[in-house]
Amino acid sequence: MSRLKYIIFCLIFGLGIQFGNAQNITVDESYTPQDLVEDILINSPCANVFNVSVSGGNFATGEKSFGYFDATGTTFPFENGIILSTGKINNAPGPNSYLSDDGGGMGWNGDPDLNDALGLSNTFNATVLEFDFIPLDDNISFDYIFSSEQYLSSPSSNQCNFTDGFAFLLKRNGDTSYQNLAVVPNTTIPVKVNTVRGSGTICPPANQAYFDAFNGTNHPTNFNGQTKVLTAQSIVIPGETYHIKLVIADEGNYRYDSAIFLGGGSFNFGIDLGVDRLIATGNPLCPGETLSVDATQTGAIGYKWFKNNNEISGATNANYNVTSAGDYKVEIDFGSSCKPEGTIRIEYAESLVINQDLFTECDADANQDGKTVFNLDNIKNLLFTNLPSNYVISFFEIPTSTTALPTNYTNTTPYSETIYARIMNVQGCYSDYPVNLRVNTFDAILVDETIGLCEDSILTLDAGSGFSTYEWNTIPPQFTQQITVNSGGIYEVTVTNALNCPKTKTFTIEASGIATIEDIIINDFQENNSAIIQVAASSLGDYEFSLDGINYQDSNVFSNLNAGEYTVYIQDKKGCGIVFETFYILDYPKYFTPNGDGYNDTWFIKNLDKRNLENSVITVFDRYGKLLKQISGVSEGWNGTFNGNLLPANDYWFEIRLTNGKSVKGHFTLKR
Questions:
Q1: Among the listed ranges 79-88, 136-145, 508-517, 657-666, which one has the minimum average pLDDT value?
Q2: What is the annotated signal peptide range for this record (predicted)?
Q3: Is the distance from CB of 487 to CB of 508 less than 8 angstroms?
Q4: 90 half-sphere exposure, CB direction, 13 A CA radius
Q5: How far is 543 from 479, CA to CA, in rounded Å?
Q6: Nearest-5° angle of CA 215, CA 219, CA 223?
């Protein structure tokens, strides 16, 4: 026992002094084998049982690996019954606080019949209960639970295939081979840890519909997990002698005990009235159908029929005709205390009432071709007024089709198509139901618009005429063809046509306004004079720029400008207005011709005063650096003389000291 499990066990044991053992099963080793079979497992005056024997572990303490268990007041599914274990049954009661791991080193062997049934050769610690019986009817059954310490909630990968084995072996007197009844329902797979296991561990789940749970500490038994209640059953011949052998054993070694719990009184010699007719199994009776149930038994002297545990007046024949749903039971009188019973449950399929069989959708895509997606789950819920929740409906393109349509189905025939609804889990009661699909279209074309809205203006948005309804996404919504707006944003209007099909048009309103010129940044006295027009950040519009008021550009930069006066025009693209402003590009003349013709006779810098640079100082030098002339920004310029003498044609140098702190140097040519 691990230290942790030992500590938990001590704590639980101590708490048990206060709370008692009511939450856990108890076991009793005092029952004889005959008592266990006749009084516990069968507990019926109809039992004809003999040659009962049991074998198990020969513990030095005298404890047994078989006996009676009582689960009254616990959550265990059986109230009482028989337990067969690969260890001491005294270790079986909960809580699940330590590992039951008995039977090592004591020469406790396995069982050859179990080995043959499961294809094993290495079983140990076998506990066997066997007896002969004579059935009254052609069917026997009993209920059981398989529990094991090998149901580990946190196994390592090499433990996934560890599994103890058990079998319920049945053969008729004179037959040479056994039939194993302990199999996964509707299969031939033996029930073991690795054939019935739940998910949630690294070991793969298997047939998990039949697995109950991995157990924590608080459980009525001291096992790590168990199956759900399973039923072992077989067809037999009434009046023949049969031998049954119930055996469980460890596989591979004695480690990790397992147990079989047989439900008290569950060994049933009852009469088989046939399979239950249930909606869940797809075989209910159809509306108005009757079923003749036959309980005829050789040697019977009387019959009583019951519906929902109430005796049916006058129903004393071997046959009974069922005409309504219910739980039916027959009690058969053999003239003694033995009165075996048979049961059958009858359900009727509902008579379905069609609520709606025409379903209309609007074509949802742009091409309006009369095809769209229908949600068949929604149609299923609207098709009938009284569809039971457990009815399964699928839809098919034609009645002979076996391929169900997808939940989201696009009709293949434009505008109108018929598909068929089929009840899948109730066979034989219903024909396919035609379901009519209709697709309406919205043929009018709606074009989204982007419109500018100037500051302090109001704009009317018009969704267009000829529609049945209008709904704008304003707050609150407006339901008119036209609305007025005074702010930018996204405005959507959903219109519906006469077929009640909607379509949405979007107006994107872009707030705009006349520009505010913040600055004109001039870069002149260069080979490439330029100007950058800066618009104030508070301006709302989308602007374009021009130097002639005719030809506009998106860029706010103008390059390759000659010296002179310019007017920049800024136009709002949304039509909110134009602003303009004059600016000047300064540059020096590259030459002058002082020949007295009145044209280009002096060298000077134009428009300095227009830039508030009239106080700038301009100095002219000859090529040797001799000062020839110094003039102001508003003078008439230099006429090409020095001390009244004409200077020769040549290159001359200058420096302009602008009052904004900038200095410009260069040279120019005097031409004669």
A1: 136-145
A2: 1-22
A3: no
A4: 9
A5: 35
A6: 55
Calculate ∠ Cα 295-296-298, nearest 5°: 140
Q: What is the mean pLDDT of residues 597-626?
A: 93
pLDDT digits (tens, 9 = 90+) for 371-388: 999 999 999 999 999 999
Look at phi and psi of residue 529 and say left if phi exceeds 0, alpha if psi is from -120 to 50, else beta.
beta
User: In percent, how much of the chain has pLDDT > 90?
Assistant: 76
Q: Check if the beta carbon of residue 416 is closer than 8 Å to that of residue 439.
A: yes
Cβ-contact 568, 602 below 8 angstroms: no
C-alpha closest to that of 661 among 604, 617, 627: 617
The model's confidence at residue 6, banded by pLDDT at 50, 70 and 90, is very low
What 3-state class would DSSP assign to 3? helix
Q: What is the Cα 669 distance to its own chain's centre?
A: 86
Domains and CATH numbers, the chain: 22-263 (no CATH), 271-346 (2.60.40.10), 359-383+390-439 (no CATH), 449-512 (2.60.40.10), 517-585 (2.60.40.10), 591-670 (2.60.40)
Per residue, what are the HEC states of 194-249?
Answer: CCCECCCCCCCCECHHHEEEECCCCCCECCCEEECCEEEEEECCCCCCEEEEEEEE
Q: Which of 609, 653, 666, 663 is nearest to 632 (CA)?
A: 609
Q: Is the whole-model pTM more than 0.70?
A: no
pLDDT digits (tens, 9 = 90+) for 147-203: 999 999 888 888 888 888 899 999 999 999 999 999 999 999 999 999 999 999 999
Alpha helices for 254-394 (secondary structure H): 376-383
Measured distance CA(580)–CA(571) in Å, rounded? 9
Q: Name which of 116, 122, 130, 230 is nearest 182 in CA terms.
A: 230
